[in-house]
Amino acid sequence: MKFVPFTVAAIVILAAFNASAQRYMTRNGNITFFSEAPLENIEAHNRQVNAAFDASNGDLAFKVLMRSFQFEKALMQEHFNENYVESHKYPNASFTGKVANLGEIDLNKNGIYSAIVTGKLSMRGIEREISETGTFEVKGDELIGKCIFSIRLSDYNIQIPRAVVNNISENIEIRVDVAMRKL
After folding, report:
1. Domain range for residue 153?
2. Per the domain annotation, does 76 fall within a domain?
């Protein structure tokens, strides 16, 4: 009978440790967007993406500082921030959602797993429901999430001026690549 309190305490401590081991995070994920248009291709990278994943319930969240996108040409970056995303008014884009098929991903076994992610993408004060398929790669204490999807600029009230309509595509390809570490 003397060992019962010790056993209960050990179970509580192990449960608390296990719960904290279910979270993954990064502050330097990478999001790239690409616009293919007849006159010019536009590509930008943001390597300061915050991402968090809670494996106990499948919650997934991203936060992106819009001014952190880097372009090949400074003028493109200026137009992106001032005219299109209006980063002075809307400094961040975010995603909050869940991994819908969490039960199919074994976070204790190295490998690449298909991940279905559903949630809300918020940009310029507009939220849209999205559902995309990507991958999670388990490598020890690291979880690498990758996804490629497209958004329509008009869905987020981003207007393309007629003068540059041949320079910017209405559909933008987004590539997500985040390597999160177990906390």
Report:
1. 23-182
2. yes
Whole-angstrom Cα distance, residue 29 to residue 20? 21
Question: Cα-flanking dihedrals φ and ψ of residue 9, to 5°?
Answer: -60, -40
Q: What is the DSSP letter of 159?
A: P
The CATH number of the domain where 116 resides is what? 2.40.128.110
Which residue type occupies 168?
I
C-alpha–C-alpha distance, residues 90 and 84, integer Å: 11
Place of tokens 């949630």: 119
Question: Could you tell me the end-to-end alpha-carbon distance of the chain, in angstroms, rounded to an integer?
Answer: 36
One digit per residue, the tens of pLDDT, for the chain of length 183 reads: 444 443 333 343 334 444 445 999 999 999 999 999 888 889 999 999 999 999 999 999 999 999 999 999 999 899 999 989 999 999 999 999 999 999 999 999 999 999 999 999 999 999 999 999 999 999 999 999 999 999 999 999 998 888 887 778 899 999 999 999 999
